[in-house]
Design goal:
Strand content: 25-35%
Strand order of the largest sheet: 1-2-5-4-3-12
Low-confidence stretches: 93-103, 272-278
Number of strands: 12
Structural class: alpha+beta
Helix content: 25-40%
Shape: elongated
Radius of gyration: 30 Å
Distance between the termini: 95 Å
């Protein structure tokens, strides 16, 4: 204690100096109008800058939740658009049905974040932070706000492995938007933004630039989920059908947020499919 007091006494003149400087500053800005105005202006600038940084940081932290909301809204809009398009096409010429609600009750979405991903292998997978305890099961479709992502291959209580569309074993039923011509989306390696659809019949009418979407002919994806655009037209290996090159709308390398599609009547649909005559 004595040593501390001696130290304070040794530097007492510096302490008095700093206190007087602080007091002089307070008096200068308090009792002089010009200096007071300058002080307030600078203080407001600093406070404003700090608040702007805080706002940006808060907004960045909330991006994950916002992205998940946008993904869900986009999927709902795509399926509603498909349902409305079919209602219009099926309506008699002099009537137009107006449904009570276009929002589908046949499925729900589980928001998830990607924690690992690959795009450069022959068979690519990604891992999401939702598992069986969250309601995720194998054979469920995975989508993003830009389109189809893949199909759940395996789950644990808290995580799930998803077979990406960039997997040579992936087969997703797709159709040309605005028509009933469909085939299976396949990836054969190479460009992660290019895939192919086989078995489009010769009598089908379409052109480069036409949009491709999910067909809904399975319990994995609802109809109308956007896939991409036709970028090239070729022949199938046997020459009996068309083989379409599709420019995928989803850039798998930039994905962060996805949603798992839960079909409400999946088990019933699967059981009926299994017993259907072949």
């Amino acid at each position: 204690m004595r040593e501390l007091l001696e130290r304070l006494a040794q530097y007492a003149h510096w302490l008095v100096f700093f206190l007087l400087e602080i007091l002089a500053g307070i008096m200068l800005f308090q009792f002089n109008r010009y200096q007071h105005s300058v002080w307030l202006t600078q203080a407001n600038t600093v406070v404003g800058q700090v608040l702007e940084w805080e706002s940006k940081a808060t907004a960045y932290i909330g991006l994950n939740a916002r992205n998940a909301q946008l993904t869900e809204q986009n999927i709902v809009l795509q399926t509603e658009n498909d349902r409305l398009r079919h209602l219009i096409s099926d309506a008699p010429a002099d009537t137009l049905p107006v449904p009570d609600s276009l929002r589908s009750d046949d499925y729900s979405l589980i928001a998830a974040h990607i924690i690992s991903n690959s795009i450069s292998r022959k068979d690519n997978y990604l891992t999401i932070d939702r598992g069986s305890l969250d309601g995720v099961q194998p054979e469920m479709g995975v989508v993003s706000g830009t389109g189809v992502v893949g199909i759940v291959a395996k789950t644990s209580p808290h995580y799930a492995v998803v077979m990406s569309v960039l997997n040579t074993r992936s087969n997703i039923s797709c159709r040309l938007r605005g028509s009933e011509y469909f085939g299976y989306l396949k990836w054969t390696g190479g460009d992660p933004l290019r895939a192919h659809i086989d078995d489009i019949p010769r009598h089908a009418t379409f052109s480069v630039g036409d949009e491709v979407e999910t067909s809904g002919f399975s319990s994995v994806f609802p109809p109308g989920i956007y896939v991409g655009k036709v970028s090239n037209i070729g022949d199938s290996d046997d020459g009996l059908a068309y083989k379409l090159e599709v420019e995928l709308n989803t850039d798998m390398a930039r994905l962060r947020d996805v949603s798992v599609v839960v079909q409400q009547h999946e088990e019933e649909l699967d059981s009926m499919t299994q017993i259907a005559p072949k």
